[in-house]
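hey team, just a heads up i'm posting the complex here instead of the shared drive bc the drive is being weird again. everything in one block, sequence lines first with there labels, then the predicted structure for the whole assembly after. its two chains so it's a bit long, scroll down
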Amino acid sequence: MKITLQVNGEPREVDVAENTLLVDVLRVNLGLTGTHVGCDTSQCGACTVHLDGRAVKACTVLAPQADGANVLTIEGIGTPDELHPMQAAFRECHALQCGFCTPGMIMQAIDLVENGDQLDNAAIREGLEGNLCRCTGYHNIVRAIQSVADAG
Amino acid sequence: MSEAIAEDTGIGAPVRRREDARFITGTGRYTDDLNQPGQVYGVFCRSPHARAKINGVDAEEALGIPGVLGVYTGTEMVADGIGDLPCGWLVKDKAGNDMRSAPHPPLAATQVNYVGEPYALVVADSLQAARQGAESVNAEFEELHAVVELGSATVSEQIYEGIDHNLAYEWALGEEDATRMAFARAAHVTTLELTNNRLIPNAMEPRACLGVHDAATGDYTLYTTSQNPHLERLVLSAFVQVAPEHKLRVVAPDVGGGFGSKIFIYAEETAVIWAAAKVGRPIKWVADRSESFLADAHGRDHITRAELALDEQGRFTGLRVKTTANLGAYLSTFGSSVPTYLYGTLLAGQYKTPNIYVEVQGVYTNTAPVDAYRGAGRPEATYVVERIVEQAARELGKDPADLRRMNMIQPEDFPYETPVALTYDTGNYEASLDKALELIDYAGFEGRRAAAAEQNKRRGIGFACYIEACGLAPSKLAIELGAGVGLYESGEIRMNPTGNVSVFTGSHSHGQGHETTFAQVVSDKLGVPYDDVDIVHGDTGRMEFGLGTYGSRSLAVGGSALIAAAEKIIEKGKKIAAHMMQTTPEQVDFDDGTFSLQDSNQSVTIQEVAFAAYVPADYPEDLEPGLTEKAFYDPNNFTYPAGTHIAEVEVDIETGVVELVNFVAVDDFGHIINPLIVHGQVHGGVAQGAGQALMEHGIYDEYGQLQTGSMMDYCLPRADDLPDFQVDTTVTPCTHNPLGVKGCGEAGAIGSPAAIMNAVTHALGTKDIAMPATPEKVWRAVRGE
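-- predicted structure starts here --
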């Protein structure tokens, strides 16, 4: 079936089987490999993107569900020369090591800051509950998100 | 070192990582992000049984599925002359006999020995067709009794013909008689039975590979998630014989974490690169997380009985340890060395215990192979030493910090030869202990404990004063002890004609930040701007050789190789500079990127020298053009990072939930190149250690089915399971490498399990509780069950 969607501000049309996952539309059909697949049980959050402004796990969204939607991925939020504040904070705070969970973590973090209020340490940690990182122990990720939240 | 460099990017500066630019923008290139024209997809058929004979593999139905291009089996691999996967470390048993190795074919041909073992590879032009194909392969299995439980494996049915009692080896280290005497004279003996739980590594990027064969040239290229691409090439060529070494290129691009699990040479990449030539198309395979759980090498899994002998004053006089170590169904690449040379040798810890004897039974079971996982043997050793020392302090009514302090090796004792084969070069253990006590506010603990009690919580504090042996390893010693390869590292520095620098290292970065740290080192040594130094790694086609990254070795060994290469650059540069300044090399000094003539104001920059080397118009007659140098650095000892970790926990006695409320790590890693990166390594290690202590457990049922086969069943630490960590360092520089560095990658995972479990048992007032201290176990312990 054909679906149309906005991806990072660009209109895109793809022809996929109905059981295709959004993450595969992004990675395979559109070549946006910044969104990663780290598990097969919707546990790790490496595939987190924004669907109509809210963070979702792209491995848990079927392509037809994204028909007509607005999708934002890690490739759409900033460039090396013009980083999104959350990207800059992750670098500044050393909030990543291997980088594999990072795109999903950043997309979740942006959602937290944009849609959460009173983000203290505990609230940030609770808000990251759906995103696994095996490298950083989360310490510097929490610091990075706090710095963006504090900057308002 | 110029002031400008020292301020921004020099040694010791918290330089923000250059590799982050691609990772935070989604432009990293991991193996699954790479594609090749004409690429097809591989899916493995895996054993549903823990132990079974294969009486036949019928691929007819699978081959009838549209898109399926081939089904490749273990029998065909054998027919093609593909060899078994070797174990790279030959351990001899205590009688001097070679360990007994079970044959490990990449694809099982006649028998499967653990659930998830691959026995066929289905290749198809789409992933979906390959999956359908794999489900349609009909294998005829004849189930056999599986040996699963470690404690009874040596008295269970024999898994392999010729391997009695399922024992790969019974290994020993230390003086048995002297240790026995020490126990006979002891004023007090503390005994502890411990288990070190099986862990499943779970790097966030699942293993993957992409195999390419060029029929016209005979060249093979394997893109794969490896911590050591050159070792992968060596093994696939020399032992497995997929392709000759000069026709095989192995590329490990961006790799999403390893923690040991991506050191090993696995069945999957072996089968994929072999089948790529047979099917004549590039083949991509990416593990599902479920496959990672089943078929990545697992870690730890020991049962241990330990005894500590003390005299009247509380001095340790003897340590006796007997360990049964699970090796799984096959000896993985370094599986044999982990519970022996990386474990028994660390049992002296930070203490002057004069008599130590350790025996290890390495046991086969019908479970996934067990090999190195972050710390690899050293967390297990630390767990034994630091749990029994803490227990001894409790039995003797002594302060656990004081008891440790009175037994510690003192700064004036170095170099210190332990009774278990190592010679520590340097350290100051009390300095780390003192700093950690201060950071945790040890004096205030009783107040915090009382406050917790008012909330119906029991608060406990626990210590671990760990040591590790890193910087693997002096090659001659390692080979004498059974290693199949040297453990040096290579580095190459190319001064380019325009004056910037391309650096090639045999180390591999999969999260460690080498592209930044190594550039800091080379920039400092050669006095060239940091931004002019590029670090290249992870491709056998681009650098000559390397042993890769594991055992916290990259900076201590790989970084030292770069220093050695830089010294050669400076030496040759002096000859060129001397010619340019019409003098002799002996009259030339080098400092901060400038060659200068002694007692004069004449100088030339290293960039000018590089240009002259490539455009040799006016050049020394007896010197080759070019300014490229390589070096192999072979360490002459291990490095010995050490430190003190202190944990505080609160136990909710109504629910059994253990909360890690405070964690202090004070580590001595020698000189530090980039403190930002070092602290990050400690954070991550502590998180994995906290996972081991409180949450993670790889569990098989009695039939050998993995019960914890997904992230829904295997409990990985999440952000809300952990506190902020307090991390600090002390410094005694390593005495035998040019950077004075020791390595920082594993310390967090080595010290923290013992510290946390000492805190849990302190809070509960129990002698032991088996890791992980889950709410159920703790709840039962609180109720005396």
